Amino acid sequence: MSRTLLDQWRDIAYDEQADRGQLQNFWGTYFQIEKEIYEKLLSNPDEEVKGTVKELAEKYGQEVLTMVGFLDGINESLKEENPIETMEEDTVVSLAFDKEKLYKNMVAAKADWLYELPQWKEIYSEEELKKLYKEQKESTTIRKGKKVGRNDPCPCGSGKKYKKCCGR
Question: Is residue 58 very low, low, confident or very high in pLDDT (cuts 50, 70, 90)?
Fold first, then answer.
């Protein structure tokens, strides 16, 4: 069985045998391409961009495997996910994204070169962007509850001290 496009992309992008400098160059180039595609998508956020993987690669002036990497990255932010695991060059895919989800996923990925794109300011106000940023950051913050002392009332509501109830 031949390797899927996604497998081919991942072999290149996550090659553990590759020279570190080569990988840094690869990702630096990829992030620039990704940024350019997002600039175009965000300049008209309500337009659904649709086509085969090959057509989209041509539309954005990219190689098919680079487009596959982009599709892999944006997939969780789409209104309907594409079949990235099985797609071929002639698979029709959509880039219709959920704006809020996309912004939050960019924040979660710590991709400041993407969530700070000026096009976002055309979509959301400064306050809305701050609110979305804060919501995303807080959603990954782990908060520990107040520790129950052994002589405190048991949190189960029995009325007994914790040490005589659930603390056993």
Answer: very high
Instruction: Tell me whether residue 93 is in a domain.
Output: yes
**What is the mean predicted confidence (pLDDT) over 89-105?**
96
**Predicted local distance difference test score (pLDDT) of residue 145:** 80
Instruction: Give residue 45's domain range.
Output: 5-97
**Residue 53 maps to a domain:** yes
Residues above pLDDT 90, as percent of the chain: 88
Task: Specify the pTM.
Answer: 0.81
Within a domain: residue 102? Answer: no
> Are residues 99 and 115 in contact, defined by beta-carbon separation less than 8 angstroms?
no
Cβ proximity of 8 and 1 under 8 Å: no
Domain count, the chain: 1
Q: Decide if 128 is inside a domain.
A: no
As beta bridge partners, residue 52 has: 92
